[in-house]
Write the C-alpha cells for this entry.
Amino acid sequence: MVQGVGYRFFTQRAAEQLKVSGFVRNLWDGRVEVFAMGTTEQHKELRRQLERGPFGSDVTEVREEPATIESQYENMFVINPSA
C-alpha cells in the first residue's frame, strides 16, 4: 500500500529510464500493480527501485508473478486508471 507518495509517477519514471514497457495502476484495496516487460536485468533493476520507492514512501513488500505479454504496452510505460 503506497498511496499518496507519488509511487505511480516514480514507477513510470524508473521504467522509462530502464526502457521497460508496461503499466502501473492503483488497485481498489490500496496496493499498486506494476506490469513490466523487459529483460531479466531490467526486471531486477526495476524491482530494486520499486523496493526503495520514492522519497517519503515505506515499501514493505514487492511480489512478482509471471504474466503473459500484452502487446498493447510494447514500447511504452503508462499509468492506467485504478482498478
